[in-house]
Structures are given as C-alpha cells and as structure tokens.
Amino acid sequence: MATQTERAVLVRAAGVLPWRVQDGRLQFALVHRPRYNDWSWPKGKLERGEEWALAATRETLEETGLEVRLGPPLPTSWYGLGTKDGRPQLKQVRYWAGTVCGGSGALEHEIDEVTWLDAAQARERLSYRRDREQLDAATEAHSEGLLDTWTLLIVRHAVAVGRGSWKGPDPQRPLTPVGARRADRLVALLHAYRPQHLLTSPSLRCTDTLAHYSAYSGLPLTERRGLSEEGYAEGPAKAVKHLRKVVERGEGTALCTHGPVLPDLLGHLAGQAPDGHGARMLTRLARNGLDKGEVLAVQIAGTGDGARVVDVERHRPSS
C-alpha cells in the first residue's frame, strides 16, 4: 500500500481550444508562454472550490483576452510534474472546444503572443505531443459536423424546503439556504455556456434557481406550466412538447424543472443520441435522476428532427 509520502498530489487545471472558421479553414488559437518558451492551449489551475468549466473560461479570458462559450469536451491530459515536498505530482487538465463570443484580446503578463493557425500549422507549432490529442479530436469533430454545437442545460432545481415542513401551496416552497447558495454558484457555471434563453417551471424553487443568473445576464425567465410537477401531472406530454420547441429553435437554453419531469425529457434526448456514452448516460439518468441543483450540459449539433446529441456532461453540486 502506498504511503502518504508516495501518494501523488493531483494538480487540477482546465483549458479551452478556441476555434473559428476563417475563409473556409478551421483555425485554433494557441498561446506562447515566454517563461517556458512554449506553445500550448490556454489553460490554468482551478482556484479553491472552483468548477472545471468556470476555470476553463476564466483562464482563457485571462490568457488570451477572449471570452469563449464552451462547446464539446475534448480529451483530458494527464502528466507528471515532478515532485513537491517529497511527493510526486500528477496534473489533470480537462479541455473544451470554445467559440469566441467577445473580449478585447488584451494579453496578460504570462502570455506574450496569441496566434490563430489552421490544424496542420497548429500541430507543428504545439510544443507538447500531448496537446495534439485535443487538436485531433476537435479536427475530427469538425469534419463530422459535430464541433459547432449549441448547449441545452437541463437544471434540476436546487434544494427547497421540505414538503413536510411547509404549510403553504407546494409551488411556493422556497429554496433552503443551501439551495440559495447553489443558485448563486450556478451563475458562473451557466455563464461558461452562455445560454440565450431561460426556460423554467413557474414553481418558486425553480424560478429562484435561475433568478440569480437571470439578473446577472439580463435574460428574462420564461415560465412554462408544463414543466411544473402540477402541469406534468395534468398533461405529461407537455414537457416533451416544450423540449421539442427548444430543439427546433437550436439556441443555447437553460431549462429548469423537477425530478418527476426529468425522465421524459432525458428519455427523449436519449432518442436523439447515437449509441454510445451519451445515450447510455441519458438513459441511466432518466432512470436514476439528477441531484438537486445539478446541471446537465447536453451538446447538440443541428436542430429539430435532425438534431444529434454530441456529448453529455454532469455538473453536480459539491457536497
């Protein structure tokens, strides 16, 4: 059994492959670090208590001056960093493809150059072989029409006051302090995906879960009774009908609802996922449910009946 001294220290980091299509050619943004004289993807360590997706967009903004919207996740890198205080260090870097949606392009002190290169040029310029794995995955996704996605964020409302201790109408049950803290933390997480629409059950525990992000982003909350427990009980088909309209529109959307409504929504999405990890996850979650306050980031290519689920990621509340 490994001793405490032998056990590796895990260093967590996150990054983005900013991409664009310029004159019909797929290009990626690389950064140069003068301290190491190397070319790599924008990335950096997670701050204490920070979520992976937020760290990825924050570090990209700090290093490149570019604001990005997260798209499909890309392969994770693992590599050693030598030892610290007599213990080996192992670095884990999670990556996403990212669409540039703003920013000044101003550089910080650790980066002295950002350059856009096509895939072949980027492969030659990258200093580390491990960074080519993300490049190859993004390039392959683009060739299959699966890099340019929009994100459906399925949100289960945060923790609310229990039914047994609430005397008023059930739809008016508020969030607990724990639930309110989760709603506040969701602001940064949702912003990493830049939804354009906020769709919610009218129940207070759902509207309050998205209210902080609504205030931050300026996006209005659109309430749909069919996403509530009461509306679902009256007409179960209404929830999937609302989901179909979202998929037909094909624009980033955060949709907040309740545990009993989720199986139908996730089951419908599973039907638009090819056989593989995404379909299995959606089917399993349709059966087992999401945590309260959890966000399921579903990357979708295309719209309507031609929509295809590309990837599915869980963002669970920390315990």
From TrEMBL:
Gene3D superfamilies hit by this protein: Nucleoside Triphosphate Pyrophosphohydrolase (3.90.79.10), Phosphoglycerate mutase-like (3.40.50.1240)
Key words of the record: Hydrolase
CDD domains named in the record: HP_PGM_like, NUDIX_Ap6A_hydrolase
Signal sequence interval, chain numbering: none
Pfam family, one: His_Phos_1
PROSITE patterns the record matches: NUDIX (PS51462), NUDIX_BOX (PS00893)
Protein name: NUDIX hydrolase
Source species: Ornithinimicrobium faecis
